Amino acid sequence: MSREDKLLILFESIHKVMLAERLIVKIYKPYQIIPVPKQYSSECGMCIEIISSDKDEIVAELQRNEINFNIVKRGL
Amino acid sequence: MLNLYFDNAATSFPKPPEVAEYTRLYLEKGGTYGRGAYDRVINVSRTVEETRFLLSQLMGTSLSENVLFTHNSTHAINIVLQGFRYKFKRVLISPLEHNAVTRPIEHLREKIGLKFDVIPHKSDGQISLEELGQLDLNRYDLCIINHISNVNGVIQPICKVKQVIGNLPLLVDASQSAGYFELEADKWNVDFMALTAHKGLMGPTGVGCLFIRNTELVSPLMFGGTGSRSDSFLMPEHLPDRYEPGTPNILGIYGLNGALKANVDFGFTRNDFKGLLSDIERLNTIKVYRSKSFENQGFVFSITSNNLSSSDLADILFRKYKIETRSGLHCSPLAHQTLGTMPQGTVRFSLSKYHSPNDLSYIYKALNEIDYEQGG
């Protein structure tokens, strides 16, 4: 799968990254924690990479749990 | 084998095996918190955040990001007292406060002219809710309550205090209650709660936490790197980073994580403890300092002897009976002023979940012999 098929979810803190990870695991979606790419304004050092097609379900789960985030396309 | 360590209000011992297990795990695997995004860091960050979540559950709050890691309760209390945005420069404190509260207040008296008043109370230090309600609470910035006294074990009615003081912010020092009694930060509507890992939670020293409900009330005490918003000279506004500069005590947090998962049951019953207090109270030369009502009694109490100084009594208990206690003022001169035990202080016994009824019986046996030898 190419980078074009991936999205990045950015969070303000490691606390939120870890909360989000737990939720993504709970709904059985694949993900990877990676360093925030330089081109994005980094609020904390980690972000979560997901597959684009899982976006809606993951976003819904994060919003349901009141977790603030930004979602961006994985750069090339 | 008897467990004769009765200084758990200072630092608990023994620790559950999980504490050593999780501490060793960190020493073997290494890694840091939130700086980088490789597996070793991710695993540490997961454990740190899981510990924060477990602490939020223990404190009875749904706001896990408002639970901040500190070195201990003293550090947590200093964050609140030194960072508080005072308007009236006057605080209200319970009559059984520890120096963790009174020394920062004294420092602030010298620095900004902060004053304090002691809440009206009964002879055992129990807050008088009726008299508290009669005070002009609009004169104060903050109310500070030691949930359980580290001298006589009196439990203060936090929920009722908050109902009486209304919007006046409340800081609760839960150092002696965490691990023994249920904490309900949300239900009680407390604004700040401080606790430490190394007492009733049976975790390691050097790690504690502060629950802070409203960050607008308190500026950070320390400033530095957080691994977030690294492009700015300013501390981040968001929690928990705003109050957590520098790498946290990861080793301590791992040990605390083990302690919080250990699930140790009490080895004795409340009735065993009640019986012990009643038995000691029957001795002629020994006076017990405890709550007037057993319902409001934590697992700490003090004694004095009619004939022996507190230090001599503690020394006899150790030399002759191998009982480890603490004598003196227990860093709480205000509590001793309240109880009338200044300047000699008391001999303090503080229990652990690892004690058995036999351990409690042994205390009585030793004190009974000492009482007899002292003419009781």
Which structural traits does this protein have?
heterodimer, A: four-stranded antiparallel sheet, 2 helices, 4 strands, B: 376 residues, alpha/beta, Aspartate Aminotransferase, domain 2, Aspartate Aminotransferase, domain 1, 2 domains, seven-stranded mixed sheet, four-stranded antiparallel sheet, 11 strands, 37% helix, 13% strand
Write up what this structure looks like.
The complex is a heterodimer of chains A (76) and B (376). With 76 residues, chain A is of the alpha+beta class. Helix content of chain A is 30%, strand content 26%. Chain A is built from two helices and four strands. Chain A has helices at 14-26, 55-64, and strands at residues 6-10, 31-35, 46-51, 70-73. Chain A has a four-stranded antiparallel beta sheet, with helices on one face. The mean pLDDT of chain A is 91. Chain B has a seven-stranded mixed beta sheet, sandwiched between helices. In chain B, strands 8-9-11-10 form a four-stranded antiparallel beta sheet, covered by helices on one side. The two termini of chain B are 29 Å apart. The mean pLDDT of chain B is 97. In chain B, helix 6 links the parallel strand 4 and strand 5. The longest helix of chain B is centred in the first third of the chain and has 21 residues, at 39-59. In chain B, helix 1 (17-29) runs antiparallel to helix 8, helix 3 runs parallel beside helix 4 and helix 9 (270-281) packs parallel to helix 12. Chain B folds into two domains: 17-262, Aspartate Aminotransferase, domain 2 (3-Layer(aba) Sandwich), CATH 3.40.640.10; 270-375, Aspartate Aminotransferase, domain 1, CATH 3.90.1150.10. Helices cover 37% and strands 13% of the residues of chain B. Chain B is α/β, with parallel strands linked by helices. The radius of gyration of chain B is 21 Å and the shape is globular. The A-B interface holds A 12-19, 21, 33-36, 41-47 and B 33-37, 41-42, 45-46, 48-50, 52, 64-65, 227-231, 236, 238-241.
